[in-house]
Structure formats: structure tokens, C-alpha cells
């Protein structure tokens, strides 16, 4: 540094570009830049030559074309007439779904295993060590395949659930584990669901306010308010009260079932045998409790029917007038005057339904009907990724807790702080600083590993955009580019969140 | 105090009580059990739950494992034997599949009479890696390490011996150019020439030279095409090649990322982040679907080589991050001391910084290698026969249709043995290095 002051102020000579440290870095950078640009232009010109030799062009128009393939699991509306872009969106949502589910379960498993591995209990600690080493040292692909094989080969078929079969549903007949997937109760949102949600959100705000208030009181007066109980109470009580209140009011309401061409006070059985003999078409809003209760009524009457999905009451009336359905349920509060001509209320009526109701899966013809079907591909991928990543998280958690020196606990005890508060106020804040950054990079790994969905046929973004779409359109370059971009953006978002967190919890050195 | 006490109070005892052992409840196995397993209601609950879990797992797997049938030609034969000896529907593994197909799981479709070649290559690899891993070995053995990749390549693929020799000559050429030019034209020019010359040599004269030499002195063994490679041999080859090739690249990238030169820094950061942000499987598909687009029209080369290139780039990005951690962990004084000694950048790196930084990062590098080795199973998706691909192939045969668990157990066990011993090595190293710092 000091030598720069006595550099002679001579004119610039070209040899300085190499021998003078002031210019050499510039020379190296320019050479590197030129080499990079040459390399890139070589790649691009090769690509252009290859594309033109194959008669292909480079455009993303294929995203708007009709996809023409089905996706068995979708979170948004999609059918084979939708576009490739839509298929990619379905895949992206499926990838995000497995990533979120996986991260949640992996965190639970990992924290539990990490804490238990530090337990003084010899058996538990060693059991967890076996779990961690077993999962960390065997490829995740093998675990995915293994769990998938377990799900498909070792679980009963739906027909084994019939009377006389050797399989049974669990958890009070609400969950069925079959080789076609796990069937669980599906939620239906009824009247007042919006109010319920609003109450829940308000109680969340209430929790925030309560905690701030408690902190303030403690700082001003030293009095410790029951934060934990208050939070728990605020979380549960208002929502439960609202649920009960709504169930007692709108939930008790009965709604008439209208049938086109029925006589007054006709029963469903008579209607099915009489005017509706050529087939029952039911207009209902899918996913609503009215539709659920109507379906229960029809099932109880052993009536076979087709469901015509409509958006709301007005659409149901329009559909009935157009002759597309002969039975319809109208949402509560519909003006009786608007009921379409020829439609008469049957003698049976249905309950309007609780704010939220669960429909249990029931055994139908060859498979379970109703409820939510979690496919084996989803379950196998979810469990395998979570258990695999959980093993890594367990090691992070263990390392984080061990990194807090024992003197911290002893100091806290010496100050007379309770063990539970010591954990919450002294150990955890210090351990979390060590645990969280590697944990987030594990989340990142899980998200990237979700592309192994290919092994079990789960339709994630690699299978839709990077798989079937590429095969159908022949647009490898564009498809892979978009796929890579999606993963890259996801990774960058997650890692920038990590950096944000890191800079927030970093030890403030002054 | 105690003196006065002893004199004034007559009932204070003056002789020691003879020592007696602790009560039975407080020693030996009973004490250990009480402290470790039954110290409180939560602990008792945990013990009981985990005992139940262990019992449940063992009860479901052990009969299956130990009733296993080792002598059968097909799955149906296995089932017949099981039904005859143990009764219908009892649980028994069919280990016979391993006896029947273990060669495939280990070597893929490599010619049977040539199995000695990959085995010898593995032995050479272990001998070559020993001087790197264990400091007690003589330093001269590193020359053998430097030569071993060429020997291993020749043993695995076969063909003319002159091909690896002429490729190896490229490195000698580069080194000679650097030694000759450095005093004459300065370091920078020498490095650039030493980097360019071998590339030109490999592109234009390595092939013809090898052919000429082969015609002059024919020295070749049977050639084995890459399609015949498979099983654990393939995993090992991809994993080892990936890690050896990616190590220098990763170190360069790490240095680039730490560098003050703006463009070099940004190139390194971009490369590392792009590679790390995208899953390996997408890169493998890129290698199999897209690499032909990026190369001059008409070039078409081996899928396995493409995979090795992709895996190398992938591992290099991860190793760069590990090495960067090592570089960042060094105290700043080390850098300043190197500058104070008047060393230039490369000398400072070679003599002072990198030996220390690499030492710190060896556990991380081993972990990266474990991850890479596990990830070699992904090549099954682009049509290479790794162990999992071969297990699918075995399942597709008539004799072994429907066999799952036995193959999974075997593959999993082999991976576990390899990865677990590597992770133990990294732990051993971590402990050894920690002692050095204290």
C-alpha cells in the first residue's frame, strides 16, 4: 500500500497491463470477460445451428396450446382441454404442495428426533440414532421407492373392506388405508363459514395484542401475565363459541328440496319411481354443505343420480329452467318466488348444515367414494422426503442445542428462573440462531428433492412441464429452461429469506 | 469451629465407620437401569413406547429375514419351498435372488470373465487414495495417486493403452510449458499458455498420436462399451470421477467467489447459485436431452461421459461452498501474514491459505461426496443401469417378477455401509483436526 505513493508518474506503457498490480486485475478481468463471452456465443451459435438443423424454432407459444393429457391430482381446475401453461401451473402447485407438507412434517419429525437423541434415556437416544443414521446414509430415492412399494403392495384392496373382508377403517370409520391411496374425511364449507374464518382471524389479532400488552405490563410493573394460557384461550374459545352459535342458528335451518315435475308433498322415493324415473340430475354447488346433505339424503334413499355442478343459487335455477337438472337445492335465504316453474318442494327436507362439516369416505362400487383421496404417490413422496430430511434436521437441532454451553443453563438457574422459562428465554434463542440457517437449507433440499416425484408418478412440475409437455411438443430447450428457472427462483426466494433472518438474529457486535 | 465442637460435645464419633458397598438399588445394572430408563414417569413412558416399537419392528422383520430361502431359481420356486417347509402364507424372504443376480447388481452387464478389471481398479483406487487420507503414508506415494486415474480408466474401459497415455501427456505438456515460460515471460502468460496448450493438444493431436503409437506398438486389452457398465460399479465410477474432477474446479470457484475482481467474482457466484438452485435430476435431463444442442452439430458422445460432466459441475458448486466456508473460517491474520511475507496471490494461496482452509473443509467435502454418491442413483431416470435401475430390470424378468424387499434391502445395506463408513471417517478427521487447534 505504501509503495503506491512513490510510483513515478511516467507515461503509460502497455507492459504495465501485465506487470503493474494497478492494471493487472483489470487485464485479467477483461480477458476473463472476453473468454466468457466467446464461450457463451459459441454455445448460442451451436444451439442456433442445431435448432435450424432440426427445423425447430425457439418460442414459448406452446404454453398456450391444448395439453391433451390428464393430471390425476390438481389443486386448480384442469382438464385435458386446458393449455400446457395451465398444466405447468398445476405441476407447480403440486410441487409447492409437497414442499410445504414435507417441510412441515420434516420439522416436526426432525425436532422431535433431535431432542430425543439428546435424551438421557439410553433406549430412546439409540433408537433415534438408528433412525438418523439409517435415513442419512441411504439414498432418498430408495426410501421413496420402498415406502411406495409398502403403500401399494402391503395395504389391503378396497374390496377387502366389505363385510367379511379382513380390513377395517381406522379412527372411528373415518380413514381407510388402501392400496389405491388413503381416504380421509373431506371438509365442506357451509353457511357461516366466512363468519367463522373472520372470527378466527380476529382472534389471531387478539392474540398478538394480548402478547404485546403482557410484555408491556411485565416491563412496566414486573407482573407476569399468563401469556401461554391467554394465547391458547384466545385461539380456541372465540372460534368454538362462534361455531356453536352458528350451528345453533343457521345449522338448524331446514331447506326444502325442489323437484321439477313433482306433485306437492311427494316423497323422494315416490319421485324417483314416478316423474324422475328416467334419471335424476341434481343441481348443487359443489363443496357446500347443502350439496353434502342433499347427497346424504339421496344415498339414504338409495337413489342413483348425476351431479350437475353449478356456481350459485341463480345458476341452479337457470340450469333447472334449461332442463339440465330435475332436482335442485337452493342455498339458504333464496326467495321462494324465484324457484323455477314446475319445481315443487318434496316432503323431505335437508339441514342447511354446520359452518364446516366433514364427509367420511364410504365404500362404493369398486372403490371408496366421498372424502379426500390422498394418492399413494403423494403419501410415499411426502413420508419419504419428510423422514429423510427430518434425519438431517434432527442433527441440526442436536448440534444447536449442544452449542449452547451448560453455563447458560446454570446461570439461569442461579438467577432463579424456572426450567421451562430457562428453555424458552435462554436456551432456545441461542440455539435457534445455530439451528435455523441449516434448517432452511434443508427445506431447500427438500423442495429440490421433490423432483424425485418421477419415481412414483406424482405429477409435479417436472412431470408436467418437464416431462409430458416436452415429450408432446418437442420443446426440450424451452421446457427445461422454464423448469430450471422455476426451481432457481424458488431457491433464491427461500435463500434470500434465510439471509434476511440471518441478518436479523446475528449477534450485534458493537 | 469443629475443634471446639469435638471437645465440648461428647457424642461426636471419633472413629470412621468401615466402608460398605452402596445398597443394591444404587449400584451396577440396577442403578444404570433406574437412571437411564426409569427415572421419571415420562422416561418410563418413553422406555415402554420405544421397547414396543423395537419389538414390533423386529417381530415383523426378523422371521422374514431368518426364514429366508437361499437356494431357488425363481420367485415361484421360492414360494413353493416356503409353502412346503413353513406352511402357506408364512413370511420368508427369498434371498436366492441375490445369489442368482448379485453379479448384475455389482457390475451390471460387464463381461463376466473381465470382472477382475473393475476389482483391480477399485484396489488401485483404494491404494491411491490412502496417501491423501492418512498423513502417515509416505509422500512419494502421491505420484502413484496422480497416475492412478489413467490406469483405472484403462482397466475399466479397456482398449489401447496409448489413449490414456496420450491424454496424460497433455498434462505433462502443460506443466512443461509453465516451467519453461514462467521465468521468460512472467507468470500470467505462462499460466495462460499452460492452460491453452494442453487443450489444443487434446483437441487436435492426442487422438492421432494414440493411433500412431498403437500401430507402432500394439498394446491393448478388450474394449468394454459404457452401455455394459452398471450396478454399484457405475455408482462408484460416477461418484469417484465426479468428486476427483470437481475438487479442483470447486476450489477455483471458491477462490473466485472470495476474489476482489468484480467480473471473476460475479461469474463464480452466478455459476454456483445457478447450479445449486436447480435439482440434480433437472441437470441430468439437461445432459441427456439438451447437451447435444450446445455442442457443434454432429457431435454425439457417450451418455455416461455426459452424466459425469454434469455431476462434476454439480458437485463443484457444492464443494465451492464448502471450501468457501473453510476460507472464511481462517483468521484474517493469515491472509495479512501471507501479504507481509511478500508472496504473490497464487503462492499465498498454495502455501498458506489453502492448506489450512482445505484441512478445515475436509469433513464438508466428505459429506458432499456422501451426498453425491447417494445421488448417483438418480441416473436411473435417464436410462443408465445403476443398482435401482438393475433392480427394476431384475423385477422385469420372468423368474423374479414381483420381488421387491430383498433387492431394496441389499441395495440399501450396501449404500449404508459405504456412506456410514465415510461419515465415520469424516468424524474421525473432525476430531483429529479439533485436537490440532487446541
Automatic annotation (TrEMBL), chain A:
Species of origin: Limimaricola hongkongensis DSM 17492
InterPro entries for the chain: AA_ABC_transptr_permease_3TM (IPR010065), ArtM/GltK/GlnP/TcyL/YhdX-like (IPR043429), MetI-like (IPR000515), MetI-like_sf (IPR035906)
GO cellular component, as recorded: ATP-binding cassette (ABC) transporter complex
GO molecular function per UniProt: transmembrane transporter activity
Protein's name according to its UniProt entry: Glutamate/glutamine/aspartate/asparagine transport system permease protein bztB
Domain of life: Bacteria
Membrane topology of this protein: Multi-pass membrane protein
A Pfam family annotated for this UniProt entry: BPD_transp_1
Protein keywords: Amino-acid transport, Cell membrane, Membrane, Transmembrane, Transmembrane helix, Transport
Gene Ontology biological process terms in this record: amino acid transport
Gene3D superfamilies to which the protein is assigned, alphabetical: MetI-like
UniProt family annotation: Belongs to the binding-protein-dependent transport system permease family. HisMQ subfamily.
Residue ranges of domain ABC transmembrane type-1 in the record: 92-498
Compartments in which it is found: Cell inner membrane; Cell membrane
TM annotation in the entry: 26-44, 87-116, 128-151, 188-210, 222-246, 480-501
TrEMBL record, chain B:
GO cellular component, one term: ATP-binding cassette (ABC) transporter complex
Keyword Membrane: yes
ABC transmembrane type-1 domain boundaries: 232-426
TM regions (residue ranges): 37-58, 114-134, 188-204, 232-255, 267-291, 303-323, 360-383, 403-425
Record's signal peptide: none
CDD domains with a match to the protein in the record: TM_PBP2
Localization of this protein: Cell inner membrane; Cell membrane
Keywords: Cell membrane, Membrane, Transmembrane, Transmembrane helix, Transport
Membrane topology summary: Multi-pass membrane protein
NCBIfam families referenced in this protein's UniProt entry, alphabetically: HEQRo_perm_3TM
Family of this protein: Belongs to the binding-protein-dependent transport system permease family. HisMQ subfamily.
Protein name: Glutamate transport membrane-spanning protein
Amino acid at each position: 500500500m505504501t509503495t503506491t505513493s512513490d510510483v513515478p508518474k511516467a507515461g503509460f506503457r502497455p507492459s504495465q497491463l501485465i506487470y503493474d498490480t494497478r492494471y493487472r486485475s483489470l487485464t485479467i478481468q477483461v480477458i476473463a470477460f472476453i473468454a466468457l463471452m466467446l464461450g457463451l456465443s459459441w454455445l448460442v451459435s451451436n444451439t442456433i445451428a442445431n435448432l435450424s438443423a432440426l427445423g425447430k424454432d425457439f418460442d414459448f407459444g406452446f404454453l398456450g396450446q391444448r395439453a391433451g393429457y390428464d393430471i390425476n391430482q390438481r389443486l386448480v381446475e384442469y382438464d385435458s382441454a386446458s393449455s400446457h401453461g395451465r398444466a405447468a401451473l398445476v405441476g407447480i402447485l403440486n410441487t409447492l404442495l409437497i414442499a410445504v407438507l414435507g417441510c412441515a412434517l420434516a420439522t416436526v419429525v426432525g425436532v422431535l428426533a433431535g431432542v430425543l437423541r439428546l435424551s438421557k434415556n439410553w433406549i430412546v437416544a439409540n433408537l433415534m440414532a438408528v433412525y438418523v443414521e439409517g435415513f442419512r446414509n441411504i439414498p432418498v430415492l430408495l426410501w421413496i421407492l420402498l415406502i411406495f412399494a409398502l403403500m401399494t403392495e402391503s395395504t389391503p384392496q378396497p374390496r377387502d373392506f366389505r363385510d367379511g373382508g379382513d380390513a377395517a377403517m381406522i379412527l372411528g370409520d373415518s380413514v381407510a388405508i388402501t392400496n389405491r391411496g388413503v381416504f380421509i374425511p373431506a371438509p365442506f364449507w357451509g353457511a357461516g363459514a366466512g363468519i367463522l374464518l373472520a372470527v378466527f382471524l380476529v382472534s389471531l389479532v387478539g392474540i398478538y395484542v394480548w402478547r404485546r400488552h403482557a410484555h408491556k405490563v411485565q416491563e412496566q410493573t414486573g407482573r407476569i401475565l399468563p401469556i401461554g394460557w391467554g394465547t391458547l384461550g384466545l385461539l380456541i374459545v372465540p372460534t368454538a363459541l362462534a361455531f356453536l352459535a352458528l350451528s345453533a342458528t343457521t345449522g338448524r335451518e331446514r331447506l326444502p328440496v325442489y323437484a321439477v315435475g313433482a306433485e306437492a308433498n311427494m316423497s323422494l322415493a315416490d319421485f324417483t319411481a314416478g316423474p324422475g324415473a328416467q334419471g335424476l340430475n341434481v343441481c348443487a354447488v359443489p363443496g357446500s354443505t347443502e350439496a353434502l346433505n342433499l347427497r346424504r339424503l339421496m344415498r339414504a334413499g338409495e337413489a342413483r343420480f348425476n351431479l350437475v355442478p353449478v356456481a350459485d343459487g341463480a345458476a341452479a335455477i337457470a340450469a333447472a329452467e334449461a332442463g339440465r337438472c330435475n332436482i335442485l337445492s337452493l342455498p339458504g335465504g333464496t326467495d321462494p318466488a324465484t324457484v323455477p316453474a314446475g319445481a315443487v318442494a318434496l316432503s323431505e327436507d335437508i339441514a342447511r348444515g354446520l359452518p364446516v362439516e366433514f364427509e367420511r369416505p364410504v365404500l362404493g362400487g369398486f372403490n371408496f367414494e366421498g372424502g379426500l383421496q390422498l394418492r399413494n404417490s403423494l403419501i410415499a413422496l411426502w413420508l419419504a422426503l419428510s423422514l429423510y430430511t427430518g434425519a438431517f434436521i434432527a442433527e441440526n437441532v442436536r448440534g444447536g442445542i449442544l452449542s449452547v454451553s451448560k453455563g447458560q443453563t446454570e446461570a439461569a438457574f442461579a438467577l432463579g428462573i424456572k426450567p421451562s422459562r430457562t428453555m424458552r428465554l435462554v436456551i432456545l434463542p441461542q440455539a435457534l440462531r445455530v439451528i435455523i440457517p441449516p434448517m432452511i437449507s434443508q427445506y431447500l433440499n427438500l423442495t429440490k428433492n421433490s423432483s424425485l416425484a418421477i419415481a412414483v408418478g406424482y405429477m409435479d412440475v417436472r412431470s408436467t412441464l418437464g416431462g409430458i409437455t416436452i415429450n408432446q411438443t418437442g420443446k426440450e430447450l424451452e421446457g427445461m429452461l422454464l423448469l430450471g428457472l422455476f426451481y432457481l427462483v424458488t431457491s433464491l426466494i427461500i435463500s434470500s429469506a434465510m439471509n434476511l433472518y440471518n441478518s436479523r438474529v446475528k449477534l450485534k457486535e458493537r | 469451629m469443629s475443634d471446639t465442637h469435638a471437645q465440648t460435645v461428647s457424642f461426636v464419633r471419633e472413629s470412621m465407620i468401615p466402608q460398605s458397598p452402596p445398597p443394591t438399588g444404587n449400584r451396577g445394572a440396577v442403578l444404570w437401569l433406574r437412571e437411564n430408563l426409569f427415572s421419571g414417569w415420562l422416561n418410563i413412558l418413553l422406555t415402554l413406547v420405544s421397547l414396543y416399537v423395537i419389538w414390533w419392528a423386529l417381530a415383523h422383520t426378523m422371521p422374514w429375514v431368518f426364514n429366508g430361502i437361499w437356494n431357488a431359481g425363481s420367485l415361484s420356486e421360492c414360494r413353493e419351498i416356503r409353502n412346503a417347509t413353513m406352511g402357506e402364507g408364512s413370511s420368508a424372504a427369498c434371498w436366492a435372488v441375490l445369489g442368482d443376480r448379485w453379479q448384475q447388481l455389482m457390475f451390471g452387464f460387464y463381461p463376466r470373465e473381465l470382472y477382475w478389471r473393475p476389482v483391480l481398479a477399485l484396489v488401485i483406487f483404494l491404494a491411491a487414495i490412502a496417501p491423501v487420507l492418512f498423513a502417515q503414508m509416505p509422500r512419494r506415494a502421491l505420484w502413484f495417486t496422480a497416475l492412478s486415474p489413467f490406469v483405472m480408466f484403462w482397466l475399466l474401459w479397456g482398449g489401447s493403452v496409448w489413449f490414456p497415455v496420450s491424454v496424460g501427456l497433455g498434462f505433462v505438456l502443460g506443466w512443461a510449458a509453465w516451467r519453461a515460460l514462467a521465468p521468460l515471460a512472467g507468470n500470467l502468460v505462462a499460466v495462460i499458455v499452460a492452460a491453452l496448450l494442453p487443450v489444443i493438444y487434446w483437441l487436435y493431436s492426442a487422438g492421432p498420436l494414440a493411433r500412431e503409437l498403437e500401430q507402432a506398438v500394439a498394446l491393448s486389452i478388450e474394449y468394454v462399451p459404457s452401455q455394459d457398465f452398471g450396478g454399484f460399479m457405475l455408482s462408484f465410477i460416477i461418484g469417484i470421477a465426479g468428486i476427483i474432477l470437481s475438487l479442483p474446479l470447486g476450489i477455483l470457484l471458491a477462490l473466485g467467489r472470495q476474489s476482489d475482481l468484480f467480473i471473476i467474482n460475479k461469474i463464480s457466484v452466478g455459476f454456483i447459485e445457478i447450479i445449486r438452485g436447480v435439482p440434480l435430476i433437472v441437470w441430468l435431463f439437461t445432459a441427456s436431452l439438451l447437451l447435444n444442442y450446445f455442442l457443434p452439430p454432429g457431435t454425439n458422445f457417450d451418455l455416461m461421459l455426459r452424466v459425469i460432466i454434469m455431476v462434476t459441475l454439480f458437485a463443484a458448486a457444492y464443494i465451492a461452498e464448502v471450501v468457501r466456508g473453510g476460507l472464511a473460517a481462517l483468521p484474517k491474520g493469515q491472509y495479512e501474514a501471507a501479504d507481509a511475507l511478500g508472496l504473490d496471490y497464487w503462492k499465498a494461496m498454495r502455501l498458506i491459505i489453502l492448506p489450512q482452509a482445505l484441512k478445515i473443509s475436509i469433513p464438508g467435502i466428505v459429506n458432499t461426496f456422501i451426498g453425491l454418491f447417494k445421488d448417483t442413483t438418480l441416473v436411473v431416470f435417464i436410462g443408465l443401469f445403476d443398482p435401482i435401475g438393475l433392480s427394476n430390470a431384475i423385477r422385469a424378468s420372468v423368474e423374479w417378477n414381483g420381488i421387491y424387499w430383498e433387492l431394496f434391502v441389499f441395495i440399501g445395506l450396501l449404500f449404508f455401509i459405504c456412506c456410514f463408513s465415510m461419515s465415520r471417517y469424516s468424524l474421525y478427521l473432525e476430531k483429529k483436526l479439533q485436537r490440532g487447534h487446541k
